[in-house]
Amino acid sequence: MKNYERSQFYFGDVLGNGRSGVVFAVKICGEVGALKMVELYKNEYLLKEILNEIKIYLGPLMDIQDIYTPKLLKFGILHEAFVFALTSLSGKSFAELDDITEREKQFAIEGLQAIHARGVMHGDVRMENIMVDRSESICKSRVRWIDFAWSKMGRDSKDFNRELIELRSLLGMTGRSDS
Question: Which Gene3D superfamilies match (predicted)?
């Protein structure tokens, strides 16, 4: 993994907080994105999670990045102290919005199904992990899944179905069979 110096990073706004800490808007080497980082030596389980996330992005999710997931822009070590992943910006989380459209909900379901089709169990289906970018207009929303730290490869359709049922419940779409 490449080591980057602190002077290469231009930190912007705080985008959110997660288990691994604060997520920042950052510019590095001309790339602007969401920076997630974990201390290299303090929390072994968090280090394993971010390394897993990078592995999932570089492996099974490679061909759906920027469609159903953010694009992994850079990853490496920051100032010999943190492991980081920089992904493209993805808007606001479903948890932040009170006007999620039926179309956006359907996009979230399609995204999870695309992730499952690559053999990946998301592992952390929550409204905070579904992002929507309405930068063009509400009728051209882009919905993407984030936070693959708890993801794992799976083959059991029952496990995939459980995540899909969990998502439908979160979205208030239980009892519907429209996909």
Answer: Transferase(Phosphotransferase) domain 1
